[in-house]
Write a structure and sequence with these properties.
The chain is mainly alpha-helical and 147 residues long. The chain has a domain of 85 residues. 58% of the residues lie in helices and 0% in strands. The protein contains 4 helices and no strands. The protein is flat. The N and C termini lie far apart (80 Å).
Length: 147
């Protein structure tokens, strides 16, 4: 290898390293630009939501509904009622009263139905179980170990 070839190889290597670092910086900047565009889109969506909220507050019916819901205001001549829980405290706005039929779920069975099912099972035991052992062999299998 000649001296000129070594110098040429060295120059090409330096140029390659400088271009590689420039390419890395370019790719990082592109990724950063993509992140910034996503943030801009999110903030524009948030701004649009706030503008819709502002437009709703321009409507007198919405303001009245919010006053009723948030502060419990009533119109003149109306009667306000406050629902209390079992401790005598007012229920929060998020709380809901459940239908007693939903709370119980399935209707409970009468005790005699369970008793009669037991009698029927005793008269006709399932056939797919192994028969009980006829003798005890005295081995330690199946016994719990002392700890």
């Amino acid at each position: 290898m000649t001296g000129r070839a070594a110098i040429l190889l060295l120059v090409v290597a330096v140029l390659g390293v400088s271009y590689a670092s420039s390419m890395r910086a370019y790719l990082e900047q592109r990724a950063h630009i993509v992140d910034l565009k996503e943030q801009i889109a999110e903030r524009q969506a948030a701004i649009a939501d706030l503008e819709r909220e502002k437009d709703r507050w321009e409507d007198p019916a919405y303001v009245e509904a919010q006053a009723r819901e948030r502060f419990g205001y009533v119109m003149p001549g109306e009667t306000a009622y406050v629902v209390l829980d079992e401790d005598g405290e007012p229920l929060e706005a998020e709380s809901q009263l459940n239908d007693p039929a939903d709370v119980l779920g399935d209707e409970p069975e009468a005790w005699w139905e369970d008793a009669w099912a037991s009698v029927e099972l005793a008269g006709d035991p399932p056939r797919d179980q192994a028969p009980p052992a006829t003798q005890i062999d005295g081995s330690d299998e199946g016994e719990p170990e002392d700890q």
